[in-house]
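Q: I'm building a small set of examples for a reading group on sequence design. Run inverse folding on the following structure and report the sequence directly after it, with nothing in between.
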């Protein structure tokens, strides 16, 4: 019998700033919510979200096996020797489930609204995934527009990463050196290398400010 004190976790993490088919798959000897908070840093605009966890004494072997299974499909690693994979989280969960079914001490949990739901079958996984997707669709906000925060064409905002002032050219574009940019495209192009994330996708309103507040903060205040 495995000693429960030696158990650890294999986790699947997603991130709202990544593409939908990018995941991080790793391991931790401590609860995964602690690990996901440690990964929250300036290189990643938004916090990681726990998608699923597998608790087992064989967590080290399980993590290696999941990585190996994904590598067999094709070269899906975002960068070699990293824990990021270009794979849908539901596919990663299927692989995790197949391995969990072979372990006596495995406890698989899929997360709904940030809370773990213990899952006992693939059918249950599918129901949980469907519920998550449904909630995600309902939470989708309209794309950012400057009028949402009371700003107009001609107003100047600041690209905080380099303290660069830029002018608003349209309701959703800024002008810089004679070219129009969306906030996210400008961020991807001009964000200093040390602040970039692995996905290359950014939520532009987080990186621009007016009067000391980011566009994201201003939008949240306006929307209550």
């Amino acid at each position: 019998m495995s000693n429960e004190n030696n158990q650890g976790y294999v986790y699947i993490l997603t991130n709202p700033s990544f593409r939908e088919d990018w995941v991080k798959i790793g391991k931790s000897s401590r609860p995964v919510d602690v690990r996901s908070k440690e990964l929250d840093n300036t290189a990643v605009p938004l916090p990681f979200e726990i998608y699923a966890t597998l608790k087992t004494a064989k967590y080290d072997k399980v993590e290696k096996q999941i990585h190996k299974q994904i590598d067999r499909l094709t070269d899906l690693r975002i960068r070699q020797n990293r824990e990021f994979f270009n794979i849908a989280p539901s596919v990663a969960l299927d692989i995790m489930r197949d391995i969990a079914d072979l372990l006596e001490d495995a406890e698989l949990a899929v997360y709904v609204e940030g809370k773990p739901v213990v899952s006992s079958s693939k059918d249950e996984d599918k129901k949980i995934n469907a519920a998550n997707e449904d909630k995600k669709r309902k939470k989708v906000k309209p794309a950012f527009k400057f009028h949402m925060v009371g700003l107009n064409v001609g107003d100047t905002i600041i690209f905080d990463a380099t303290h660069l002032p830029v002018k608003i050219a349209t309701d959703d574009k800024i002008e810089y050196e004679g070219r129009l940019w969306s906030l996210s495209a400008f961020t991807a192009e001009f964000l200093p290398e040390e602040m970039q994330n692995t996905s290359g996708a950014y939520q532009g309103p987080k990186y621009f400010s007016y009067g000391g507040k980011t566009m994201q903060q201003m939008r949240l205040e306006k929307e209550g």
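The two ends are 53 Å apart (CA to CA).
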